[in-house]
Amino acid sequence: MKCSNINSKPPSENNPSPVPPGKESSDFIREIIREDLRTGKYQGRVHTRFPPEPNGYLHIGHAKSICLNFGIARDFGGKCNLRMDDTNPCKEEVEYVESILEDVRWLGFDWEDRMFYASDYFEQIYLWAEELIQKGNAYVCELTADQVRDTRGTLTQPGRESPFRNRPVAENLELFRQMRAGKFPDGSRTLRAKIDMASPNLNLRDPVMYRILHAEHHRTGDAWCIYPMYDFTHGQSDSIERITHSICTLEFENHRPLYDWYIRELGIYAPQQIEFARLNLTYTVMSKRKLLELVKGGYVRGWDDPRMPTISGLRRRGYTPEAIREFCARIGVAKVEGTVEISLLEHCLREDLNKRAPRVMGVLKPLKVVIDNYPEGQVEQMEAVNNPEDAAAGTRQVPFSRVVYIEEDDFREDPPKKYHRLAPGKEVRLRYAYLITCTEVIKDPKTGAVVELHCTYDPATRGGNTPDGRKVKGTIHWVSAAHTLTAEARLYDYLFTKENPDVVEEEGKTFLDNLNPNSLVVSPFLVEPGLAGATAGERYQFERLGYFSVDPDATPERPVFNRSVTLKDTWSKIEKAQGKER
RNA sequence: UGGGGAAUAGUGUAACGGCAGCACGAAUGACUCUGGAUCAUUUAGUCUAGGUUCGAAUCCUAGUUCCCCAGCCA
What we know:
Blueprint: H1 28-39, E1 47-50, H2 60-75, E2 79-84, H3 94-106, E3 115-117, H4 122-134, E4 138-141, H5 145-151, H6 169-180, E5 190-193, E6 208-212, E7 226-228, H7 234-240, E8 245-249, H8 256-266, E9 272-276, H9 288-296, H10 311-317, H11 321-331, H12 342-356, E10 359-360, E11 362-363, E12 366-371, E13 380-385, E14 395-400, E15 403-407, E16 427-430, E17 435-443, E18 450-457, E19 475-476, E20 478-480, E21 485-492, E22 520-527, E23 539-542, E24 546-550, E25 560-566, H13 570-581
This protein binds one RNA strand through helix 5, strand 6, helix 12, strand 19 and helix 13.
């Protein structure tokens, strides 16, 4: 039984979630765009872009931005570009570029023929720098990084002007050309914009436009040894691409006056920048720096570790693009900085998978059950429903025999109140099989642990039916001991033990001290034999346990299942509440 | 401390001077061959203080709290 129906749609489909009329999403950015459309500000054009820096893998926060930018283009019949903001050769790598392309595509978005790199514009940006020099708007500064910092002033005090600030244009031009020609060592000179060292906005205190970096760029190689700063690149890149609405996160609000200054002085097309709050999620971290630290420090197995909030991690974990898109739609867009509860993400996955994931059975903590009155050597094929939410998913045969394994948790020698499962003398239903009654409990004489149960079955209840109409509260899952396939389960929990991992109780501790030591538990998994040969990416619901997806580490002999998310567990809540009563 | 932003149930997000709504969470019940799903019900909110107005989450004034900015990172 394959799970192809829940594989993501081909990337060519640029319309991942057609919006039913009346259900169009709305937020303050779309409001602005509607207004711009009404007033004809951009002649009816809507053109956005998603501009990541290829210095790490994309995470769920980027998904929010991707859904926003591509979603707006879709909703308003516009376009959305994909652009790598690759102005810092020291941090950027092709591996990251490739992962970004894969992730955006997997999420279901299509940039068509509009894949760009800021580095494609290096020559134009260089020319613009010369233009500003000509206009007397920029100068070559020989202050060291430390000196620049010292002369920048503080939040309350103005900075001091560089001694090189009033160099003649011709000298600046000559020096800048020598910078490009590689005449100077790294850090010895910068090109600075001549704006206002007393500005209350520190970004306008003669910001650096170009720095010298004798570093190999992932695309331009060694063609350049000077590189433009992000601030001197981003706005112009948007301008070149004729972007109408440059949507970015809140921390760039302070930079907008600088972008506007460059655009104005250069006299080029001006996009409109709109800022929104980035996504924060409980029990995880979202900064690329911290994510990098987790990877480099070996705290996780890689960028695509299923515990990571990266797109590739979520994908490996078993998340669907549909669930992530739905999540992004539900969290909305605003300027308030907040933290979304991870339970909403989990809800979106469950909601999606409930409709589509085939059900199967598997036992994590096996307890042997011998059905004494069931004929030895007999095997019956039980018909099981593949998905009660989807009749078209059909049924399958599951082998049943005299010895089965059930979940350790599904038996209590001394059952608490409201416990509906197996206990001495009690009857439960083995899902799709028979009703059984516990007659004997066998324990390890040394430890006292229950090691085996003996039961009797009611032959009249084949398939789990009760012809006499009697009600049985408990239905539990099982696997036939003689037919079980041993798989591996990877049970994931939150990566951190704290809602906000950055909150540390002692000075000197970091988010790493809040790592959850139990975020991954590997366990043998006894699953029904039909799962042999399960292939990577398939998603299943193991009844009563949760949704799992097949990990790429799986082999035909030994499937590996990642637990994507557990099922909601009402019983554990009841039990917890009972524990508190005592 | 200068500048730039933001404050609506536990969380996220609507309401654009006219009934504070939705989702997640939590709780209760119904139903159930998954203690799943589904259905029903409940819970709980406009940062504070003034003002304008017939009427304020929305407008005005003052205050409070939180976030961002002192990279040759993005």
